[in-house]
Amino acid sequence: MKERLLDFLACPDCGASFACRPSRSEDAEILEGRLTCQGCGASNPIKDGVPRFVKREELPRTEAATARKFGVQWSLYRWEASPDQERQFRDWIQPTTPGDFQGRVVLDGGCGQGRHMTLALRYGAREVVGVDISNAVNAAFARLRRFPNAHVVQADLSRLPLRPAFDYVYTIGVLHHMDEPQQGFQGLVRALKPTGSLLAWVYGRENNGWVVWLVNPLRILLTSRMPIWFLKVVSFFLTLVLHPVLKGIYLPLKRGAPALWRLLFYRDYLTYIASFQFREIYLIVFDHLNAPVAHYVAREEFERWFKEAKLTAVQIAWHNRNSWRGFAMHPDAQRLTS
Fold first, then answer.
1. What share of the chain is helix, strand, coil (3-state, %, to 5)?
2. CA distances from 275 to 65, 75, 245 (A)
3. Cα–chain-centroid distance for residue 98?
4. What does the pLDDT look like over 118-159, one tens digit per residue?
5. For the chain, what is the mean pLDDT?
6. From CA 319, how far away is CA 274, in angstroms rounded?
7. Residues sharing a CB contact under 8 Å with residue 262, sequence separation 6 or more, in sequence order
8. For the segment 264-316, what is each residue's pLDDT rounded down to a tens digit?
9. Peptide bond before 51: cis, by omega within 30 degrees of 0?
10. For residue 12, is pLDDT > 90?
11. Nearest 10 degrees: CA dihedral of 50, 56, 60, 61?
C-alpha cells in the first residue's frame, strides 16, 4: 500500500479518515501494518501490501464461496491484456474511450488480478484504485506494485472503504457474481465524485435462456463444486471441442457465407471469441464453470438500477446479444459541468 492511498480511503462505517501505522515497508510500499479509523476506531490490517476490509466469516456463504473460487482462479492463471483482450475491454467500456482515462482518477470495481488496471494506466489515468473481495488482490498487487499510481484494496463492493473521489468507475463482469448485484452497483455509485461517470457490464437475461436453464444449474450443482484440478481437466477437454468449431465453422461462415452464419447457435458471442487464442478460450470456459453464483440481468432490471441511483445521461447497450453495458453520469454531473 502506498501512503497516498489514504487520500482515497474512508471508513465504511462512519466515513472518517484512517490513520496508518506501518510495521514493515519496502521502498514506497507499506507491506504490513494497520489502518485505524479516526472516527469510530475500527481497525483493519494491511497484509502483503494490501489493505484488507473483508472478514470472510462475515460474508454470506455463497459470496464467501465465490470469493474463494475467484481467488484461486486468479492465483492459478495470469491473464495478460493481449490485443484480443484489449479489444474486448474497449468494447465493454463503450461509449468510454481510452482517451477518457487521461488524467482521471479511476476505480476498477472487482479488479481480479488487475489486468484491466494495466490498460487504464496505459491510457493515462492519473491514479487507479482496484478493489476485489477475493484473494486475487495478491496477484493484482504483485502485478501493479511497480506503478507509482496504482493501488489495490480488498473489500466488498457493497461496502467500499472509499471516498466519493473518482472521476470514472468501471465494473466488468463482476456484479452478476454477487449475491445482491444492485447493492454492489449502489456501492460503486457512492464512490463517484459529483462530476464522475460509471460504466457497468453484466450478463444479460435476454438470449441466455439456455444458459439460465441448462448451464447455470450444472454450474451450481456440479462444476463449481469440483476440485479445481478436475475442473481444469474438464475445461480443457471442452475447449478442445469448442476451439476447432469456432475456428473452422463460425469464423469462415461469418466471412464467406453470412446467410448460413445467421443460422448458427449463439452466433454473435461465439464468433466474437473465435479469434481468441486457445488459452484465452480455455480461460473463458473455466471462468464460466467455476463461479458458484451467476445472475442474468434483464434490461428492464438493469435500467432500474440506474434510475434508482438517480444517474443521468444513461446509455444502455446490447453487447454480442448476450450481455448489457450501461454508462451514466453522477446526478450532479450535468449541472456542475454546464
1. 45, 25, 30
2. 32, 25, 12
3. 17
4. 999 999 999 999 999 988 899 999 999 999 999 999 999 999
5. 92
6. 16
7. none
8. 999 999 999 999 999 899 989 998 898 888 999 999 999 999 999 999 999 99
9. no
10. yes
11. 120
d(CA 174, CA 293): 11
Count CB atoms within 10 A of the CB of residue 96: 18
Question: Which cell numbers in the block locate residue 302?
Answer: 438493469
Q: Are strands 166-172 and 312-319 parallel, antiparallel or unpaired?
A: unpaired
Per-residue cell: 129: 484504485
Q: What is the pLDDT of residue 76?
A: 64
Give the amino acid at 290. N
* DSSP structural state of residue 114: S
Q: Whole-angstrom Cα distance, residue 69 to residue 290? A: 7
Tell me the H-state helices in 60-99: 61-76, 83-92
At 43-80, the pLDDT tens digits run: 999 999 999 999 766 666 666 666 666 766 666 666 66
Cα–Cα distance for residue pair 282/236, rounded to 1 Å = 6
Residue with cell 464467406: 256
| Structure confidence at residue 84 as a pLDDT band (50, 70, 90) | confident
Cβ neighbors of 238 (< 8 A, separation 6 or more) are 285
- For 42, list phi and psi in degrees, rounded to 5: -60, 145
